[in-house]
Amino acid sequence: QSHLVESGGGLVQPGGSLRLSCATSAFALNYYAIGWFRQAPGKEREGVSSINRDGDSTNYADSVKGRFTISRDSAKNTVSLQMNSLKPEDTAVYYCAATPLFEGSWPLAQSEYTYWGQGTQVTVSS
User: Fold this and answer.
1) pLDDT digits over 35-58, tens only?
2) Which residues are CB-neighbours of 78 under 8 A, at least 6 positions away?
3) Alpha carbon distance 7, 27 (integer Å)
């Protein structure tokens, strides 16, 4: 059972932008650190970004640093991943996940994350 729901994926041209959102009606995301992961065809799932419970500490994979921004909206009970300057190598299924830890490990450790979404497809292609 997926407690989290991702949205905002789609097809975009190289250089374009997308904003992914992670939401749930099951619990308050403020009590969880959140991680974004992605899995490209034929590759293992990798950590992309994370944010701690307070929202004042974030981490990014080197491959997305400077292009992606993770943020919280407590009023909407969502965590977003703003993705700019997208590249074909960003093509993957993107997953959000929640851990009750104040701040997850970096690099992201999938084993720390209790709740997962079903993923949203991001395709970057001309």
Assistant:
1) 999 999 999 999 999 999 999 999
2) 21, 22, 23, 29, 72
3) 18
Secondary structure (H, E, C), 14-77: CCCCEEEEEECCCCCHHHCEEEEEEECCCCCCEEEEEECCCCCCEEECCCCCCCEEEEEECCCC
Kindly report the backbone phi and psi dihedral angles of residue 33, in degrees, each rounded to the nearest multiple of 5, phi listed first. -80, 145
Region 57-75: what's the mean pLDDT? 97
Burial class, 47, CB count within 10 angstroms (exposed 0-12 / middle 13-18 / buried 19+): buried
Identify the burial level of 3 via C-beta atoms within 10 angstroms of its C-beta, where 0-12 means exposed, 13-18 middle and 19 or more buried. middle
What length is written for the chain? 126
The mean per-residue pLDDT over the stretch 52-66 comes to 96
Distance, in Å, from the CA atom of 3 to the CA atom of 27, rounded to the nearest integer, reads 9
**Inter-CA distances, 31 with 1, 3, 35, 67, 78, Å:** 20, 14, 13, 27, 12
**Residue type at position 100:** P
Nearest-angstrom CA–CA distance, 112 and 104 = 7
